[in-house]
Write a structure and sequence with these properties.
The protein is of the alpha+beta class. The chain has a four-stranded antiparallel beta sheet with strand order 1-2-3-4, with no helix packed on it. It has a four-stranded mixed beta sheet with strand order 7-6-5-8. The chain has one domain. 42% of the residues lie in helices and 22% in strands. The protein contains four helices and eight strands; from the N terminus they run H-E-H-H-E-E-E-E-E-E-H-E.
Length: 197
């Protein structure tokens, strides 16, 4: 830790902030009803990004060794390259998916209440009007692997009769109940290695 003395206070502050946020979230969950309005929130993003960021934070100190490339032996360079490839192959797809979903659904709001038969999509503050009869087909794209860091990233693509296509990503909420709600609307389940839009 002599090389990076500033890392310890940053890690301690990060752990303290996370503990406070989760503690407050846990306490307030007793006093709030289940939300029916879904937007990209900090906690949802943290849930999706936890393992990719953890992998990057563990591997980053090793990747810094590339700056000392002239002083490393051939064996060490091969080992560092292999480690960098593993770290990046685990983390980068999830980070790219997250950035793509965030850019697409940043201003999207989903109102979903299956008990009231309610499914509304807002872009900004504008309601996109449609009913279930207006859905030509619905694509539900999920990840083939359930163990990859990016397996929680999936999306629904709603094709409307007007020709408009609405995309709801897992950045908003867990989409499985929404897909179940839309099962009679020509639902087309698909599986991919990674669910890029």
């Amino acid at each position: 830790m002599k090389l990076f003395p500033f890392l310890r206070p940053i890690l301690e502050i990060t752990v303290a902030i996370c503990a406070i946020v989760f503690g407050l979230r846990f306490i307030t969950s007793f006093f709030t009803q289940a939300s029916r309005v879904y937007r990209p929130t900090f906690l949802r993003q943290f849930y999706l990004l936890f393992w990719p960021l953890l992998c990057m934070s563990v591997g980053l100190p090793f990747l810094i060794s590339f700056f000392y490339l002239g002083t490393l032996s051939g064996y060490e360079v091969v080992l560092l390259t292999a480690m960098a490839a593993v770290i990046l192959s685990f983390s980068v797809p999830a980070l790219v998916l997250h950035a793509q979903y965030y850019a697409h659904n940043l201003h999207t709001t989903l109102v979903f209440d299956p008990k009231q038969n309610k499914l509304e999509v807002y872009e900004g503050r504008v309601l996109i009007p449609f009913a279930q009869r207006d859905l030509v087909r619905v694509e539900y794209v999920t990840c083939r692997s359930k163990r990859a860091f990016w397996s929680n990233y999936n999306f629904l693509r709603l094709h409307l009769r007007s020709g408009q296509v609405l995309v709801l990503t897992s950045l908003l909420t867990n989409l499985e109940p929404v897909a179940e709600f839309l099962r009679n609307s020509n639902l087309e389940p698909q599986q991919r290695w990674a669910c890029f839009l």
